[in-house]
Each structure stands twice: as C-alpha cells, then as structure tokens.
Design goal:
Rossmann fold, 207 residues, binds thymidine-5'-phosphate
C-alpha cells in the first residue's frame, strides 16, 4: 500500500502524517518518507531546489530537479519497501509537481506529467490524502511556526499559493478514485480524525 499526503504549506500535513503513520502500524510495517528527499541523493537535490538564495532557478530546472529527486527516491527507497510488503506513507509525491510546477508555474499539467513519466514510469500512489485550506490561513500558520525552515517556495506570493490550491483541485478532479480531499481548516486532532476515518474506509474497501 502506497499512500501519499499532499497539500499546500501550513495545512498540517506533516504533523498529521506522523500521527497517521503510528495508527497504520496496526496494519503492518510502515515506512515514512518524504519528497523531495528521503534518501541521500534526493536530499541533496532538495537543498539545491529549496535554497532561498537560488532565486535565479527557472521553472523548467525546478520541475526537472523535482522529477530527478523523485526517480531516485522511488526506485531506491519506495519500490524496495513495497516489495517487502511495507505500507509506504510519503509526504508529497507527483501531485505536488502537477499542482506547483504544472499549474501554478504554468508549465502545463500534461507537460509535467510527461517528464514524470520519464522519471518514474506509470507509478502512482494507491491512496492520496489532499489537505485543503485557504492559502492565507496556511501561510499564517507557517508564519506562526518559528521552528519551520523557510524554503524558496514559501517566499512566493499569496497569488502563487492560490494557484497551487486551484492546481490541486484540478488534479483531484483528474484522479477522483485515488485522491481524497480533506478540509484541513480545523484543529490538528479534528483533521487527524477526518483523515483516519477516510483512510480506514478506503483501505477496508480495497482489501
Ligand atoms: P515541504 O517538504 O516542506 O513541504 O517543502 C517542499 C516544497 O517543495 C513545498 O513548497 C512544495 C514544493 N514541491 C514542489 O513544488 N513540487 C514537488 O514536486 C514537490 C515534491 C514539492
């Protein structure tokens, strides 16, 4: 079972991912990982992409670097874990590229899907949880979190983050049976509850 968590900055995705990973242990061994990163080579690519100093990076380079990190991470870490029957839960995956680079950066969802096909073939998660929140609320949450690293994409405008949300909505419409949209405008406990209910229902259906 390959599960991904998606959504904009400040939606509570990563906090809740760790709580859900604990609950999933009742179903089997769980591997928690993230994108871009998860293994050494991809973590190095992450540093290049997200370095706040790299303002000169063009959107094509950005999309290709995310796809490169994804390919290495997918084949080096995710595939072997799935082969060992682990439940893999990944913080972001291809839908981030479709929403951020494909839609918000205007590269085209189809174009970005094509470079990802080169990177990972037809690989897709079994289930994706999409955290949905108004961008202004998400950005206010990250501004209030002093421990969080500020990355290059956090520095984008509210208009960019609004496009990211629209992009996610488009992607969710393209993959209605895979992507579950969760309203993330609530307390952490409440959102965790919503995610768990949706996930358990879907897992029981696919068994
Ligand atoms: P995060 O791991 O803290 O969520 O940061 C990753 C950032 O990279 C976040 O701003 C979303 C962005 N991103 C993309 O734009 N495209 C991608 O394919 C991925 C995986 C992340």
């Amino acid at each position: 079972m390959f599960i991904t968590f998606e959504g904009p900055e400040g939606a509570g995705k990563t906090t809740i991912l760790h709580k859900i990973a604990q609950r999933l242990q009742a179903y089997g061994e769980v591997l928690v990982t993230r994108e871009p990163g998860g293994i050494e080579i991809a973590e190095k690519i992450r540093e290049v992409i997200l370095n706040p100093m790299h303002t000169a990076m063009n959107e094509h380079t950005e999309a290709l670097l995310y796809a490169a990190a994804r390919s290495q991470h997918y084949f080096e870490r995710i595939i072997p874990a799935l082969a060992n029957e682990k439940i893999v839960i990944c913080d972001r995956f291809i839908d981030s590229s479709l929403a951020y680079q494909g839609y918000a950066r205007n590269l085209g969802i189809e174009q970005v899907a094509a470079i990802n096909k080169f990177a990972i073939g037809d690989a897709m998660p079994d289930i994706t949880i999409l955290f949905d929140i108004e961008p202004a609320k998400g950005l206010a949450r990250i501004a209030a979190n002093e421990q969080r690293e500020i990355n290059r994409l956090d520095q984008e405008t509210l208009a960019f983050h609004t496009k990211v949300r629209e992009g996610y909505h488009k992607v969710a419409q393209m993959y209605t049976s895979r992507i579950i949209v969760i309203n993330a405008d609530a307390t952490v406990d409440e959102v965790e509850q919503r995610v768990w209910q949706a996930l358990e229902a879907r897992m029981n259906k696919s068994e």
